[in-house]
Each structure stands twice: as C-alpha cells, then as structure tokens.
## 1
Amino acid sequence: MIPAAFEYDRASSVEEALGLLRTHGSDAKLIAGGQSLLPLMKLRLARPDRLIDIGRIEALKGIRVLDDGRRAVGSLTTYAELIASPEVPYGLFKDALPTIADVQVRNRGTIGGAIAHADPAADMPALLLALDAELVCRSAHRGERTIPATQFFQGPFTTALDPDELLIEIRLPGPSQHHASAYRMLEQPASGFAIAGVAVVIGQTGAAADDVFDDVRGAVTGVGDHPYRAGAVEAALVGTPIDGPSIASAVGAICEGVEVMSDIHADREYRAAMAAVMGQRALEGARARLT
Ligand SMILES: Cc1cc2nc3c(=O)[nH]c(=O)nc-3n(C[C@H](O)[C@H](O)[C@H](O)COP(=O)(O)OP(=O)(O)OC[C@H]3O[C@@H](n4cnc5c(N)ncnc54)[C@H](O)[C@@H]3O)c2cc1C
C-alpha cells in the first residue's frame, strides 16, 4: 500500500513547526513517530497534502522533574523511553506500557502522537485521565494553553487540539507514597487494542482517616466512543476502605451515562460486563500495591 503524494517539511524547532502549521493550516498534518498516521495514509484513509515532521525536535523529547515534583513529559517521548525512565514510577504505566503494540512500535510511537490521535480504544488516554494529567499545547497566534486531560478527549479521534496547535508536553502529578495505581484490560487478540481497559488511581490525602480513601480516580477506554472518567465508580468509593465488597458494589456503575460500543469483537452487554471486571481487577491491583 502506497500513500497518496504529499509535500514534506522537517521542522527543526517548535517555532518552525508552529510557523509551518500557521502557513499551511488544515492542509498539513504533523507526524511524530508515524505509527498511527502512516498506516492510515497507506490505506488512504488519510490523505494530507503536506506532512510536517516534528520527530527530530529535541525540545519535545525527554522527562523533566518540576520544582513541585510534577513530571513534564515531552510530547515526543516514546513508549520505550517511558518504560526505561525511573522518573515516571506509576504502577499503571508499569502495567500498561510493556503491553502496548510491539517493540518496534514502542520504540517509535510517542506519548503525544498516541493522545493526539485519540483512538477510542487506545491505552494512553485512560492512563492520563486517571492520573489527572494536564496537556500543554501551543499555537503561533494564540500562544500556550493548558488543557486538563478530562477536557481533551472529545469523541472518536477527536480532541480539544486546534488544527494549528502543537502538543508540547504532558504534566503528571508527582509520585506519592500515599497513592497507588493500576491498569487492567481485555485486549482484542489480533490488534492488541482494548475491548475494555480500566486505569485507576487511589490515594489518601492528609485529611483522610487511616482506613479510607478520599482520592479515587478511574478511567475507561475501549468502551465508549472516547475514553472517559467513571464518575459514578469514583463517587461510590470515596470515603470507603476500598475492599472486596465496596469494589464489587461500585464497578456495576462503570458504564453509567455512556453509550457502550458494540462491534464484531464484543457486543454491548459483553463489553459492559468486561469493563466492570477490568475495573474490579484494576482497583484490587492498586489496593494491593498499598499494602
Ligand atoms: C502494529 C501496531 C499496534 C498497535 N497497538 C497498540 C495498542 O495495543 N494500544 C495502543 O494504545 N496503541 C497501539 N498502537 C498505536 C500506537 O500506540 C500509536 O500509533 C502511537 O503511539 C502514535 O504515536 P506516533 O508518535 O507514532 O504518532 P503519529 O502517527 O506520528 O501521529 C498520530 C497523530 O497525532 C498527531 N500528532 C503527533 N504528535 C503530535 C503533537 N506533538 N502535537 C499535535 N499532534 C500530534 C499527528 O498529526 C497524527 O494525527 C499500535 C500501532 C501499531 C502500528
């Protein structure tokens, strides 16, 4: 399969990439690792007139620890770099990242590309939703803005990014010994994408009694037309010890308010049931990390 013809620019700086985006507007498409965009172009499901290659912009690579402990992950950081880095010691990353795709895709695919692409069954969006990540974006004419992950994913392959915006970095809360996280998913065996994937973060802040959790976040991928936070599960578990009975009772609401997808791999009923099972396993996994 051969893509349709396109013009090609390689940007060597963020400013150059933003200038090219402003000049060429929606005729142009950014390319980072190419692991989502190139397959689409080869199938001619995407036919951009111009590619702006950001893959060699050093300023978008790597992980910084900010003064307040948060992590700033450059949008070009690859899955492989996240796996190898001691600076992102989140349990849900350890669970999810080694299972995404294969080693070649993990060496090329970037965190920015994964979330800008916004596949409704991708893993990374759920991880960032559960972590309460913030996404720093920049455009030539409007400058920089920060979008909470909870407002970023808006529909299938649709995000809050404007066509002339570049995702610069992803900010994650600093690791805390009073928090733990986990990710569990049922994957579609041929593609590896989630039929139902659930990421959770649970924690205690200073104000919480010893045996209860007052910070509970859960995010679901593969189930709705875009990844979402499972608000009803979170509300049911805040103020509880997060044990067998409270988990079993809460996960029944994991699809509340969501139009559950149905396809040849899983009908609505099965997918919803698997979301509850994955939610239960993720919560048990996070809870076990705190004992
Ligand atoms: C064989 C295979 C198996 C896979 N399995 C899985 C899996 O199991 N789970 C899973 O979640 N994913 C899976 N994927 C998808 C993979 O994770 C993503 O394709 C990859 O991470 C996207 O990153 P990229 O850098 O390659 O993006 P690209 O393909 O370069 O770009 C993707 C999109 O993001 C935009 N973009 C890229 N960078 C930026 C930026 N900085 N700012 C704004 N827009 C940007 C591009 O314009 C494009 O629209 C698989 C892919 C393949 C090929």
## 2
Amino acid sequence: MIVALTGASGNMGKETLKSLLECEEITTLRILVKQDKKSLKEARKAKRKYGARVEVIEGDVRRYEDCLALVRGAEYVYHLAAVIPPRADHFIEEAVATNYDGTVNMVRAIIEDGNTAKMIHISTVALYGNRDEKHPWGRVGDPLLTSAFDAYGTSKLRAERYLLESDLKTWAVIRQTGILYDNMLMNNISDGLMFHTPWNVPIEWVTAKDSGVLMKKIFLATKDGGEKDFWKQVYNLGGGAGCRQTGYETFDDGFKLIGGSVKRFFDPDWNAVRNFHCFWFSDSDVLEEKFHFRSETCESFWKWFSRRHKIYSLGAILPARLLKSLVIKRLLKNSNAPEYWKKKGLEDRVFAIYGNKTPAKKWEDTDLLCESERYASIKRYDPSFDLPHGYDEKKPDRELTAADLAEAAAFRGGSLEGDYKAGNLYQKVKWRCARGHEFFSSPFTVLKAGHWCPECSMPDRKWEFDLLAKENPFFASVWYDSHEKGEDRVYVLTDEEK
Ligand SMILES: [Zn+2]
C-alpha cells in the first residue's frame, strides 16, 4: 500500500511520518520534499531510519507534475504542506502559491490519477480569524472572518474552499490549531509574530506528537472501510480540556522555563488586543471519540520540554531585566511587531490590532481573563456559548430543505437563488450575497463549513468585514465582539509594507 505525504519535514509532518511508518500495511510512504537544506536533511534522516519504505520525491507542491508523481497509485494522501507564520507573513507570494496553488495541484492530481485516493487535508484554525474571549467557545460552521493582513489564513481559506467545491471523491478536512512542538520556544523568540497574540484570547493547543498519532489512527480505523461517516466532513483538531489556556497562560508557561514570566518580560501594550484567531473548540472531542489520539496536555508538554532542553533553565541565573532586553525587546524592531508598525506609521496595521482602544501600559491596570473570577465559569462549556448558524441545526443533514437553506442565506444577508432537493448536501446550488454577487456552492460548504460569498467574503489581499458585517448578521455575531459599529475600514495588504 502506497501512502503519500506532503509537509513531511514540518513540525506535524515529522510526527506524522514516524507514526504512519508504525503501520505495517504501509509498504511505501512517499514524501514530497522541497530541495532546500532543511527538507533534504529530514528526508535523508528518514531514509536512513526506514530504508526503502520511505520514497522521496524531490519537488514542490507548487509544481503540478510533482504532485502527480507523488499521488500516483496512492491509497491515502496526507496534505500537510504549508508555509506558515512567521514565514508566511514575510514571504506572502510563497505562502499563497504553496498554500492555495499547492492544494489546487494536489486535488487536481488525485482526480487525474483516478480519484480513488482518500485525501486528508490539513486546514487551520486561522480560517476563523477575529475571535476573543467574548465568544470563547467555537465550532465548525462558525463564520470564517480571517484576520486582516493574515496571508496565511486567507490562502488556507481559499484552499479549503477549493477542495470542498471540487470533484474529489473521498476527503476529510481537519482544521489544525496551534501546535506545541519541540523547537517552539526558539522559533517564537526570533520574530515579532508573538506580539500578535492577545493576552486574553482563548487557545486550545495540541501537540505535534498527538497530531501525528491522529494521522496514524485515521489510517488504521479507515483502511478496511471502517468509520465511513468520517469522510466528507470538516473537523477541528485540538488537544481537549488539558490544552485550553489563554494567550497569557501560554506565554507564561514558556517563559517560566527561562526563569521569567510574562509580567517580568513584557509590557502589556506590546501585544495585540484583537485581530487574532483562536478559541476553545466545543467540537474537538469528535475526533478524540472516533480515534483516541490524545495523550498530552500543555502541562505534560512543558514538563517534557524542560527535561529535553535543560539549557533554557540557565536563563534563571540572569537578571529578568537583562533577559527582557536580550530576548524580547530586540524583537520590537522586527517588521512583524506592532511596535515597528507604530514607528513606521503603518496606521492600518496598528488600528487592525488595537482599534480605538489604547491598551494599559501597566500590568496592574490590565484585565487578565485568566486571573479574573469569571475565568472558571467561562472555561466550562455550555451550549449557550454557541454562535447561531442561522438554520435548524437539530435536523439531520438529509432532512434539510430549500426553506432551511433560504433561512441560512437570509441570516448571511443574502438569498438562495436556485432549487434544492433534500438529501443533496454536496450538490452545488445558487446563492446570492448581500452585495448581489451570485455564486454556486454546496449547502455543505455554506451551512456546515461556514464559508460564504467567494467574491466578497473570501479575502485575498483585501479585508472588508467592517462593511460586510453591517449587512450580514452571521458575521456580525462575531465581528462586533472586537469591533465597533462605526468602524469602516478596508484593510489592504500591499507588498511595500513588508
Ligand atoms: Zn459577495
């Protein structure tokens, strides 16, 4: 049996490769590896360890022929390859071409190869964008309002939609959350990206290892035709209760290892207060119940991490003030840091993350969710936290009617234009958005996956949710958690900014 894998040298990819090769049934794991130093090194390592079972194709998802060579004869295709932040923030063209064009190539290649391979596409929590503690719990079907200037999130949004609307026969989309991985501390203290995380944003993490185990378990449970319901669905991947924190708690756990804490290392106004994308998943247990892949929590991860990287504990002998300058302050000058945007007068960038609010300069004036009395009750999931999706969700999929679709469309400020016969959730029907754009999309893509108009609601380099939310109650239900009604910005990503 041939299984194909992209992104094998990434954080999740390395664990996936290892995990899949524990399955004896897989005689060949074929990986597509970029011709750069880091990727080729990983490929050589895998060849040394696993020999002929690992077949390396040197190439790039951006080239169609390479994708075709990768998937030829494969029964499963795991598509993990992506250019992620911070790289995606600095190399926008590369991110878009890899994340969007690469996925288009993969889908087309599988179809050309007979459309028999099962594709597992790794999507991302970044699709949701713009979430905060006002709606701390979320689920698949929630609105997709990617954050302004997030080329990664939008390229992944467009990639996912392409797949959902394609003729691919057997697929599953898994929206991956923030990954806890081996090198994460070092990677995070080398870019201004870390200032994009608001202190109070709810985050549900998952470890790279558990993610790799999930990929294996999916294979084992489905290879003989089991778990049929798993396919043609979208899932949120998260580590569950033990992986739910706020942005502040996560930073604090990480900096404890070098003898610090957030309050000793950061000024509170260095970080964004909005325009970020995580939340706690009310539906991440769906994958756990099917595949039982979880064995780690944030706590166990950091324990493992500190044993593995004892060197960081040496930081504890240095004065906090020195570490603050050495480790954090120098990053304020990075072109991905808000302090840099302020200095350069990039007003839209600054407004996107602060709005009309000026964050407090002192910790004692900062309202930290994780230290508040309300935290415990917010952390307990209750269905009243769910955002409405604009139709009767209790109805089984096959019983949804044209009237249900029309109701959902109206909740999005638009209308259902074509006919719909119950039971055809994956067949495209015609819709119209509030701006009059007509488009064809499956009811699954709209009602179940949360996508909407491809012309105005799927940003490429222009984010206008301020305007769209005025006519779209579905968007408004999240947008005004962190934006004011009077805001009328259109955020445009230009090449000169970076
Ligand atoms: Zn539109």
